[in-house]
Amino acid sequence: MFVVDPYRRSEMIGGIEMKRLIPGCLVALLMVFVAAFQAQSANPMMDAVKAQWTPIKGFLLKTAVKVPDEVWAFKATPEVRTFAQILGHIVDSQVLFCSTASGEKGPQLNAEKTMTTKAQLSKALEESTAFCDKVIAGMDDKKGLENIKFFIGGSSPRALILSFNTGHSYEHYGNLVTYMRLNKIVPPSSEPSPGRGGAN
């Protein structure tokens, strides 16, 4: 008569139970990973648009706070815009691009032509930034891929107009950086931060 050692029998039963449990655990774990992946990439394109927009909006808002009142009338040469006019241009452009991309009416600011002071333009920048934040947050990838009329190339997907706005803001932030450097002000993008060296 065949006799199974009780310890061996326990190992066999345990092995059978483990063999049954492992596939179930793997499936459950896979479902968790799939759910997490889907949650993260439901709108990967617009996630990228937001990620690109976030740093420049922060640099501009910090610039408006950091630069003292007397510098807002400064211009590098007589032929170019003042600091205030450049920031006003950024404000008006943000409203234009974000309203074009969304089809929504943005705040009517006319900042470049009518505003000259730090107080006026800081408030206007907060308004244009909030409007673009709202537009980006309210757009999914499906809407972002819709092709609409645009003054460059005749048409463009909505999301690319928002990316154009980000690039345009970076372009003119570069002008502001030059103006800050000429006035011995460290631009926000060069300020020390955790994990990065000192200002340069």
Helical residue percent band: 55-70%
| CATH topology value of the largest domain | Four Helix Bundle (Hemerythrin (Met), subunit A)
Low-confidence stretches: 6-14, 16-34
**Element order: H for helix, E for strand:** HHHHHHEEH
Beta percentage is under 5%
The biggest sheet, with number of strands, parallel, antiparallel or mixed sense and barrel status, is: 2 strands, antiparallel
Fourth-level CATH superfamily of the largest domain:
dinb family like domain
CATH architecture heading of the largest domain: Up-down Bundle
Number of domains: 2
Rg calc: 27 Å
CATH class of the largest domain: Mainly Alpha
Strand order of the largest sheet: 1-2
Structural class: mainly alpha
Give the rounded overall mean pLDDT: 85
Distance between the termini: 86 Å
> If helices are DSSP runs of H or I spanning 4 or more residues, what is the number of helices?
7
Shape: globular
Overall strand count: 2
Question: Can you lay out the helices and strands and say which pair or pack?
Answer:
Blueprint: H1 6-40, H2 44-66, H3 83-102, H4 111-114, H5 118-137, H6 141-144, E1 147-150, E2 154-157, H7 158-182
Antiparallel strand pairs: 1-2
Helix pairs in contact: 2-5, 2-7, 3-5, 3-7
